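for the writeup, i need someone to sanity check this before i put it in the appendix. the sequnce is what the collaborator sent (i think, or maybe the updated version? ugh). structure was predicted straight from it, no edits. if anything looks off just tell me and ill rerun, i have time this weekend
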Amino acid sequence: MKGQEEARDAGQTTWGKYLMDRLQAYLVDQEELLRRALQLAWTQEDLGPKYGPTLEENLRQLESLRACRTWEEVRTHQITDFGRLAAVRKPRDPDLAERIKALRKACWEGVKARQAPFAVDSQRLLADLDQSHLALQGLVQLVRDFARVYEREKRRRRVLDFGDLEHRTLELLLGKLGDSPTRAAGEIGRRFREVMVDEYQDTNEVQDRIFETLTRERGNCFLVGDVKQSIYRFRLADPGIFLEKYREFVPAGEAEPGQGRKILLSENFRSGGEILEASNHVFRCTMSASVGGLEYGEAEALREGIPHRPLPQSAVELHGIQLTPGPGGEAAVKYEAEAQFVAERIEALLGEPAMIRQGEDLRPIRPGDIVILLRSPGSCAGYYRRALEARGIPVSAGAGGSVLDTGEAAVLRSFLQVLDNPLQDIPLEAVLASPVFRFTADHLGSIRAACPEGALFEALTRAGETGDTQAGAFLDLVQSLRQAARLENLTRLLEEIYARTHMEAVFAAMDGGEKRRRNLEFLYETAASFEQGGRRDLAQFLAFLDTAAQGGLQPEEAGGVPEAVSILSIHKSKGLEYPVVFLSNLSAAFNREDLRSNVLVDAQLGIGCSALDRENRCRYPTLAKRAIAQRIQEENTSEELRVLYVAMTRAKDMLIMTYASRYLTKRLEAIARQVTLGSNTALSQEADCLGHWILMAAMVRTEAGELFAQAGQPEETVVRGSPWRIRFHQRGPVQELEAPVLQTPDREPEPLPDVQTLLSFQYPHQSAVQAPSKVTATQLKGRELDREAAEQAMQPLLAGTRRWRQPAFLTQRPLEGREIGTATHLAMQFLRYEACGSQAGVEAELSRLLAEGFLTARQARAVNRQWIGDFFRTELGQRLQRGQDVLREFKFSILADGRILQEDLTGEKLLLQGVVDCCFMEEDGITVLDFKTDRVRPGGEAAAAARYGGQIRTYGQALSRIFGKPVKKLLLYFFQTGKLQEVPWSKA
């Protein structure tokens, strides 16, 4: 087996040598830890003589183990006991004594773990490798056979995947043997004067060989990257390629002609100096060649590219949240508590308000300035979204969980699974008990009791055959839709499901109905996109949804939501920047699942698998698997530190970090006793979450007093120019209302009132119960189908109705009636009035609206150019062109007295909404202008205006209340006749 040829000692194999090298490097760090403990002990007269001899002996033990050169030597020289420190009664500095003990304990526990693989003798390990050799040979041969068959099938279909494109390119440039450039490589390379590779830190070996081959003759390759932002190892990016050149190349000023040179671009033009100081501090404490792949020195530190104006508040905050256990899962309690804390802090920032930079000035923070970054949002983003929404803070539509996690999506997926295979009990029961089909638990229980054996579908079938009408109707529907699934495409099948089950109407009638309906609409659109890829099979679509459920599925936001808080994964935030960054869920443990596989693969160490002990019926890792697992864990830890670097450097003005855990105090205590200024390689290697590194850096800052109060102060602290705001909080689980305790009455109960009186009771405010909580100005005059009502009011969904998509022949016909009015209003909303002084100007503006997507082609054709041109030739139109203090499409929401709707609602409060087409704001009052496209005969403007009086007077009242000014005029402009009609402020 490659890696163990002729090996007589396990340390001579590739994997044994790797483990021995890593052990020796680890022992060097631990020796430094013990020297620190020894130095601290001798600072006290009572501790040095007592602790010194034992610590010196421990140091000799480590040095002796590090001197071993073979596996067997390590095995026989393993440290089995570190001894006991001599007792010191009432030490002068108890904290220092505890710190020395903690350093020694951390050293001993680390060494025990690292030397554990060496407990097995060489011959046993080599025998395990021999035993696994045949199995791995078979596995490799299977992969080769599959690759050959797969390649043949791709050639037959004449298709290539992305991997093929890279490998075919490399074959073209280096030939099949890959040993020397081909003539084609020279010809292609000579086409380019310079080759620049951006994001070079994310290059893999195949890509790097392509770049190298094309530029070998002329040395004209310019590489740009930042290895500290290499976070795509799961896509085979190899930061080692960048690091190799970083170490080999010399500074540009010292390079000889033709020699590889490097230029350090340390200036950062995004973040304020406070953010850069925080980032530099964290990574000086944590990053090294062993963790992160790079020593973080002065050359690697970030520098402020342009000076930034100081902020009135702290730019960097760290909040440690000590949780107390509560009911429910531990993760759910943590997510809920931390999300509530973050939402409270955001609410406070918006209310204070805190300030951020805008050019050379400062302005208050808005929701759109804020992002919450999470390492893995899938499991917890929904908690943050709900906490923000509960406080009325807008959240972007794509933030927080997946559409597939919603109840309506779960019902649809389950129903599709039933149509694919009705013998699946779990999806079938979920569908039957859903709000769509409403089988009660008793009903389902009786169906199963009548047929306890076999699949639930068989029991349902028997129930249908014996007269159960609800079961029979469901079976008929399933049979019909299964037939449709075989004959129709996916989108047509979903239309059938929505129409025949009324699924959209059912979920639209529930809490959050509009969003639920949009989610179902989005799943329809997802199916349409899936079909466009040439796939129509229901089973394939279900498999696609299963995969999408793991990664999260959210609708794309049309143009984004500029004034809403964003929730993103750190990976998705790469390349972006935000004024305010919340870096949360820092206590989330790293994902180590990939280390549990029976077979592990590494580009350098090859393949390792578990060995099987048939006699004792157990499985254990071979030497190869142990080495590969350790290398993967070390590489993953380094990548996690680089992920943290990316997250921290997204912030422009404020960085707020939160760490919530039941074990926060314990972690702080462990860190406080080991951490020092500068790099802490051994402690950094112990990280199991991003927050470990943040707490390491925080615990050496003098402003961490609240953390010191919980865990003690470390031996060294530092004062920085930009202090952090570091706080410690105690939080319990989010409490639910407790049920009232029933108490025994201490006196006789009063007699009950007459039952007839109770039954005949009439609620005195019944009209308020039936009144809507929200009305629009247009509803006040009975025109629910007017444009504003359509935009602002919730239209009732009738059971059994389906909003069918317009077929192609309808989208090609000219617009009619109200559609023309909508198009005209859109044009008047977005036209640049100052450009409409002539008919040619109007034409040009309408062409612009079409090109920029404000109007569709059908709408642009429907807009009457003459109408708009005539309007801008009026005195009022020319006044609009001057554009002083004009508001367009002004949307308002105010609380109004219920009497505006009905007299018997006087005293009730209704939310009144509307959209004012246009209004002039002048010193002496407000002029309200509303456009009408109704068919009006010349001379009939006054009668038409009377019908709209209630609406435009309501607009006037709302504007007067909002701006605190009187209303001068209420005007209606009728495009049909080109006439302006004034509406009196009060009814005639």
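The domain at 403-551 is CATH 1.10.486.10 (PCRA; domain 4). The chain has five domains: 10-124, 164-265, 303-399+565-731, 403-551, 774-797+884-988.
thx in advance!!
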